Give the backbone structure.
Amino acid sequence: MSDFEKSVCGCFGDPGACFLTCFCPCVQFGQNMEMIGESCVLWGCLPIILILLNGVIPFAGIFICCVCCVGRGKVREKYGIDGNAFFDWCWICGCDILVSCLVGWPCGLWLTVCQEANEIKYRNGGGA
């Protein structure tokens, strides 16, 4: 077992992934899942559906965090990275709360998506 090699604050290690995550986070999330053998369409569309339902269904935003936690768990499982669902939840929600407080925009969740993109590329021999 190992740790993530790429930092959650190392988003700029791959400017392309950083840009895509910043402006189209669901696309980056779907691509991450595709790179580990999952369905890009399913995993990319699920957060979009939850975002659209956020104004209709109370607490739909929590389900977005759940989807991202499951995705992060799949990345950890594929590459033998230490951790568990509780710590994934803490990273994802903690980053989102912290960044929301600092900049007034809830984008911390996407820091972990960008970290996963960089990690997958790194572990697949693509740099980042």
Summary: The mean pLDDT is 84. Residues 60-79 form the longest helix (20 residues).
